[in-house]
């Protein structure tokens, strides 16, 4: 077997050499057409002197050779065009003939002809599976992820899938197996579910260091989740309604700043879903984007009757342009301290936020003055109106003072 092409979505490969390849394709097509026509004209208009001497076999052989040469030239040009088209459209190649590649991965990535032929609207004739471009770098892990019994139970390997996502292999390929199920007993009706604990047995603890909520609450999982699973007696019950510092904005004050009302919002790295819970109490629907890093965040958010989105920040948000009234983000914006990645993320946030909508930057940790200035300059490039802007200090657990930035920004109308 050779190599199989797999289609990428909005990955970085789509932007690779687009302008150069587009020009090259046009030139190659023009060259191919001109060359083919010249060969054809020469072949069928050429009359050698031997023709007058009635040497028909030699003339037929000569024409046949020239026609074969033309056909080979056409075939070569078509192959070059097809390869350049794949590069332009964002295709990459992964060698599925290598050893230890799972059969299910081969089956998923092979292109399949449309059952009714060519689609009249799109012009496509086959379907190519969508998979992250960085999956090629993790082919061994990907093959392990796709090793399962078809129509059987999926392996208990969600942590493997998340590891692939964190390495850029997003979206993951679909699988033909049944995911592990846990009885969801004791769930509370909405809105009582927002602040009620349920049985810990409804969460999947495999692949996690902690095996219960008490263990999770004893740890600082990240800057936005310290004891965030205690929704009955912990600070989560006061969050967004009672301020501990000047950087803590009250949710009602922020909602009053919105023009045209706030109906739907997007929370980036929303911990255990408390922001979405407070918004739900005010009849605002919030989608919370989070992974299960060291804790069952998605299951916990869902148990509260809220909407979790299992998504990394390296992927384009699966939402249409200008649809959200509010985007809330804290230290989820800290994408490894890489300014280019932060730019891509900020542009995608701006894309999904409607004109007049609010961007709430909530206690963003500024580890250095350079980082604070870089973020400030980036925000100013978008021309957002600063409705509220607070830079404050907070003493951490080791007694060291840290600088945090909180802001409410309003997206301008662009024409």
Report on the structure:
Its main location: membrane. Belongs to the methyltransferase superfamily. One of its GO terms (cellular component) is membrane. It is found in: Endomembrane system; Membrane. One of its GO terms (biological process) is methylation. This protein is an alpha/beta fold. The protein has 3 domains: 1-10 and 91-181, no CATH class; 17-89; 192-410, Rossmann fold (3-Layer(aba) Sandwich), CATH 3.40.50.150. The chain is 33% helix and 18% strand. The chain contains 11 helices and 13 strands. The strands form 4 sheets. It has a 7-stranded mixed sheet. A two-stranded antiparallel sheet has the order 1-2. Helix 1 (18-45) packs antiparallel against helix 2 (56-89). The longest helix is centred in the N-terminal third of the chain and has 34 residues, at 56-89.
Structural class: alpha/beta
N-C termini distance: 52 Å
What's the helix-strand series? EHHEHEEHHHEEHEHEHEEHEHEE
Number of strands: 13
CATH topology of the largest domain: Rossmann fold
Number of domains: 3
GO molecular function, one term: methyltransferase activity
Membrane topology: Single-pass membrane protein; Single-pass type II membrane protein
Subcellular location: Endomembrane system; Membrane
Keywords: Coiled coil, Glycoprotein, Membrane, Methyltransferase, Signal-anchor, Transferase, Transmembrane, Transmembrane helix
């Amino acid at each position: 077997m050779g190599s199989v092409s797999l289609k990428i979505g909005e990955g970085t490969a789509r932007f690779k050499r687009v302008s150069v390849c587009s020009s090259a394709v046009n030139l190659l097509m023009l060259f191919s057409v001109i060359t083919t026509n010249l060969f054809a004209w020469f072949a069928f208009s050429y009359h050698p002197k031997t023709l007058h001497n009635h040497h028909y076999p030699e003339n037929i052989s000569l024409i046949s050779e020239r026609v074969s040469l033309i056909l080979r030239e056409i075939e070569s040009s078509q192959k070059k065009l097809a390869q350049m088209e794949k590069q332009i459209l964002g295709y990459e190649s992964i060698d599925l003939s290598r050893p230890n590649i799972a059969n299910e991965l081969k089956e998923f990535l092979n292109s399949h002809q449309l059952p009714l032929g060519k689609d009249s609207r799109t012009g496509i004739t086959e379907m190519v599976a969508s998979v992250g471009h960085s999956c090629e770098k993790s082919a061994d892990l990907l093959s392990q992820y796709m090793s399962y019994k078809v129509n059987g139970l999926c392996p208990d390997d969600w942590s493997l899938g998340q590891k692939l996502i964190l390495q850029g292999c997003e979206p993951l390929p679909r699988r033909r197996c049944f995911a592990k199920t846990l009885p969801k007993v004791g769930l509370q009706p909405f809105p009582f579910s927002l602040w009620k604990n349920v049985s810990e047995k409804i969460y999947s603890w495999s692949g996690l260091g902690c095996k219960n909520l008490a263990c999770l609450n004893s740890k600082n999982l990240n800057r936005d989740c310290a004891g965030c699973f205690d929704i009955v007696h912990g600070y989560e019950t006061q969050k967004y309604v009672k301020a501990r510092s000047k950087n803590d904005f009250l949710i009602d004050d922020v909602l009053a700043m919105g023009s045209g009302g706030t109906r739907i919002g997007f929370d980036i790295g929303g911990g255990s879903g408390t922001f979405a819970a407070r918004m739900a109490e005010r009849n605002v629907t919030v989608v919370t984007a989070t992974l299960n890093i060291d804790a069952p965040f998605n299951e916990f958010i869902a148990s509260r009757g809220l909407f979790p989105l299992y998504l990394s920040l390296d992927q384009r948000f699966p939402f249409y342009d200008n649809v959200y009234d509010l985007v809330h983000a804290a230290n989820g914006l800290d994408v490894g301290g890489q300014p280019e990645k932060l730019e891509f993320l900020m542009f995608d946030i701006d894309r999904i936020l409607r004109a007049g909508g609010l961007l709430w930057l909530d206690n963003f940790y500024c580890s250095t003055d350079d980082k604070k200035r870089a973020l400030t300059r980036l925000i100013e490039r978008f021309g957002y109106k600063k409705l509220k802007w607070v830079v404050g200090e907070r003493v951490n657990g080791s007694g060291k003072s840290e600088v945090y930035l909180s802001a409410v920004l309003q997206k301008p109308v662009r024409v």
